[in-house]
Amino acid sequence: MVWFKRKKAPVAPVEKKTVQMPEGVWTKCKNCQEIIYAKEIERNLNVCPKCDYHFRVSARERIDLVLDEGSFVEMDAAVRSVDFLDFKDSKKYKDRIKAAVKKAGDGDAVICGSGLLDGLPVMVAVFDFSFMGGSMGSVVGEKITRAIEKGLEAKAPVIIFSSSGGARMQESILSLMQMAKTSAALAKLKAAGIPFVSVLTDPTTGGVTASFAMLGDINMAEPRALIGFAGPRVIEQTIRQTLPEGFQRSEYLLEHGMVDMIVPRQEMKARLSQVLRIFTKS
Amino acid sequence: MKQFLDFEKPLADLQAKISELKDFSTERVDFTGDIKKLEKKADKLRKDIFSNLSRWQRTQLARHADRPYTLDYVDHIFTDWFEVHGDRNFRDDPALVCGFARFDGQPCCVIGHQKGRNTKQKVHRNFGMPNPEGYRKALRVMQMAEQFGLPIFTFVDTPGAFPGIGAEERGQAEAIARNLREMAMLKVPVIVTVTGEGGSGGALAIAVGNRVMMMEHSVYAVISPEGCAAILWSDGAKGPQAAEALKLTAPDVDSLDCVIDDVIPEPLGGAHCDHKAAAATLKSYLKKHLDELMAMTADELIEQRYDRFRKMTRISE
Fold first, then answer.
1. Which CATH architecture has domain A56-279?
2. ipTM above 0.90, yes or no
């Protein structure tokens, strides 16, 4: 026996309302999942206003964040990668370079030049992760080495902002050699008593971490950046264990003595200026 | 027991047959003719196999279980060897051996990756994958060599630096990076030989030399073929394809004209067939380079080493 009967027909499901929303007005924070007005994040230097998550920023944006307005003079902008091994996976390396240059508008994964930081002349090299994962091939290694040599010549401190998946596989052995080349240039800089600050941003792994990025007189990291030698997936596959919470994040590296300080993006310029002024006579 | 790779198998079978015939031979039964014929056939087969090796086959040879390791070369090339242990901070790393010895009477420093042959040794040596303390030990010993003005020989044979939690905690990246920087400034000759696998940063961390050479069947690349395949094709089993793409063999690397100085020929069939002969050839190359470098001043050595790596670039401007 049925006690209650549904008299009305079931309500027809509401037709899916389509809201006209232009792309990119709202952004979901990867960390706190909060939906935030994109302009607000941008105003906050690409840091989530709710949870302080640091979004990745392009090389050009970062240069604007730390150097005095209009002071940046780019070097070696025309240098381009060459596919000397005829490397091919699902795509030819040649085509990958072309596509990346077209997308980024820049020649490779690092932008180098001179500029002023609170009036102090400095050499900077800034990675762009969006260019082939910030990978280091001949061009990246060469541009960074030239920036260091220029710093040596001009007696100007060198700052490198890293964000890279490591050495670029498509240039095989020569990518590996960039690690030795850049580190050797830093050896000369050190011998000359010129400061080098390495700023590690999300993510910095592989051959970049295992060369200049860990060699700063001061190593700074942005909050919660992934920093390591082997990628977390490789380690998990090797040891077949899940990794501890917060493994290879900036805070973990600070705790283990691998970085000197964690510097939020909003304080980066002031902190760089403070540090460099201690180490340079002016 | 000897171990054979797939492509060595036909040759191994033939050789087994030859030795069987030799065993059967008595004064009355003479197989000399047959043996000679088979030996001729074996020689031809060996030449055929080894003149057409694919890059993947060469990679397998570089990893051959019977290949001479650092301590084997030490036995054959050096005298008065004593090993030193530990980084003075954490522990001794058996994956990287360091010590001092004499090379034709000349006191010197020897550093190299070390793999194991049986399971127990392999685990003990961590498959030739050093932890940070291994690289720190190497640096300590290299700086000691500098202190006493001794030339340094390094032998590279590692799949790569160990990717583990402890290694990350103790700064694997920092240890490698520091070696790259400090080796650039060493005031003594540094002669590097890639004897087997030159696996990425884990290899380079003892390979910043005035001279860098590769054994004929060694490989040297930025990543292992399996690792490369896992990233580019999401399939670690595509190692053979990745090996082709990475161009990681000694002749490949040599063709770049800036990374290595010499490809050291191995006995036909590979160094694992005749450790003694392989070591003898290697020694003659080491001697040649050592003589050249011993004539240079400390500043010249540093400058030459810097220029060597400075030139490693392929770009368009």
1. Alpha-Beta Complex (3.90)
2. yes
